[in-house]
Specification:
The protein is an alpha/beta fold. It contains 15 helices and 19 strands. Helix 1 packs parallel to helix 15. It is globular. The two termini are 31 Å apart.
């Protein structure tokens, strides 16, 4: 037993719970402090009676067999379902399949527009050659090289402005290589169970997995302390003291932190140098508001997700929960269950809007999209303040300077996960950063900051849950 080790974990999302499981397997009992009232972070599943909400639309896929094995160990096979991915972008009233398929682009919006797009695409390839995944550039430069100016503007300009809340000229392209697939000139085979467009999903939503993780930790005597907001993180000698907003404290030999990197620097004592605090102040997040609406009328929507880059609606993306899992709605319910996703900045605009003001926007969007908004069975609003780190052009450099400072001055402080490392990670990457950080804690020569630095497309060579 590692009785002399007593680390503290801040956050009970995928990274924090994975770190706790890895520590427990090695005989170490950490204390976990979670600011919210539930485990799972953005991957939680809020419930209201028999209604369940997935706040972010979580597909489960990974290139790591270690991650897939952990998923399988937490949930039995019968609790996993295979879900074919079917997404679309709603452009000028036309749902166009996404990832983009060449034949759709040439036919679905009319031949003149199709030929205009094809001409722009060919001209871009002749002018710039094949896009390079190693090139550091803005999203607009990347998108123009990848899709041509016409299709890039039609599909992605409004998408970036609405969901990333910034101009495409001010957004780095790193994440796009990983997440936006090049145009396919072959029809995808979603019926093929080995296709990367078929993913795994917990039957009762992503939070089912992380609730199972919390139950597994309870078997080790480890229970996350919920509604426990951290106010200060102090280093004293070789140890740490974490102070909560209610004044309670916990001491440990190391800290694994999933709290936003900016907040970590703000709460750290001794106070970091001024230039580090100024760099941390530049790190920004997008907030996500998910409004789940249960329409009494059944609409035949063949997509899991519909992106809405146009200016005619405020919603940025729509989830069709019926395509994720029927268990997200009450048994035998036959209406249409949607999750409307709105993106904003913390403290601004929709983030501080009342439920009544938000409801008026939702009703307006439903009308514009052609849904009957007058007959609703259920409405549920889920707000996620620090949902997604914004990857602007300075993010990589600024995070690297904070990382290097922490490595030098606080080697027993381990930022992990999407917010902890301020990197747009999937769940599996957050888990891998936790696994490697725990390995480093036990003396392994690994660098958790190298997780998810491959610029190639994510959904190839996948291990299955």
């Amino acid at each position: 037993m590692e009785s002399t080790r007593n680390p503290v974990i801040i956050g009970a999302g995928p990274a924090g719970l994975t770190a706790a499981l890895e520590l427990a397997k090695n005989g170490v009992t950490p204390r976990i402090f979670e600011a919210s009232g539930a485990v799972g972070g953005l991957a939680r599943t809020p419930t209201d009676g028999d209604w369940r909400v997935d706040p972010g639309g979580h597909r489960f896929f990974t290139k790591s067999e270690e991650v897939a094995a952990l998923w399988r160990s937490l949930l039995p096979a019968e609790e996993w379902i295979s879900v074919p991915r079917s997404s679309a972008m709603l452009v000028n009233g036309h749902p166009v399949r996404y990832p983009l398929v060449g034949r759709d682009l040439l036919t679905q919006m009319g031949l003149p527009r199709g030929m205009q797009g094809l001409g722009s695409f060919v001209w871009s390839r002749l002018r710039h050659g094949l896009p390079s995944i190693d090139r550091a550039e803005t999203f607009r430069d990347w998108g123009t090289r990848q899709f041509g100016n016409y299709w890039c503007g039609l599909f992605f300009d409004g998408y970036v402005r609405k969901t990333w809340l910034t101009n495409p000229d001010n957004l780095a392209s790193d994440w796009a290589n990983q997440r936006i697939k090049p145009i396919s000139w072959r029809r995808p085979d979603a019926a093929n169970s080995t296709s990367p467009d078929v993913f795994q999903y917990p039957r009762r939503g992503p939070g089912q997995l992380w609730e199972a993780a919390a139950a597994a930790l309870a078997d080790f005597g480890i229970v996350p302390s919920l509604n426990s907001n951290v106010a200060h993180i102090r280093q004293s000698g070789s140890g740490w003291t974490v102070e909560l907003q209610n004044g309670e404290t916990a001491s440990g030999d190391a800290v694994f932190s999933t709290m936003p990197l900016r907040l970590l620097i703000d709460n750290l004592e001794p106070l970091p140098p001024q230039h580090i605090r100024e760099i941390a102040a530049t790190l920004r997040h997008r907030s996500l508001i998910t409004v789940a609406v249960a329409l009494q009328k059944h609409y035949d929507i063949p997509y899991n997700w519909v992106y809405t880059p146009g200016k005619d609606v405020r919603v940025g993306r729509i989830q069709n929960y019926g395509r994720w899992s029927s268990a997200l709605a009450p048994q035998n319910w036959n209406g249409t269950y949607l999750g409307l996703e709105y993106f904003t900045l913390p403290g601004e605009d929709l983030a501080v809007a009342s439920n009544e003001s938000l409801g008026a926007i939702v009703q307006q969007d439903l009308r514009a999209l052609g849904f009957d908004h007058t007959a609703l069975d259920h409405v549920m609003i889920v707000r996620s303040q620090y949902a997604y780190p914004i990857e602007d052009s300075m993010r990589e450099r600024n995070v690297a300077r904070i990382r290097d400072y922490l490595r030098l001055r606080h080697p027993t402080l381990h930022p992990i996960g999407r917010n902890g490392m301020h990197h747009y990670d999937n769940q599996d990457h957050a888990m891998l950063s936790a696994m490697q950080s725990v390995a480093k804690y036990f003396g392994a020569k690994v660098d958790p900051w190298q997780v998810n630095t491959d610029r190639s497309y994510h959904e190839t060579g996948l291990a299955r849950a």
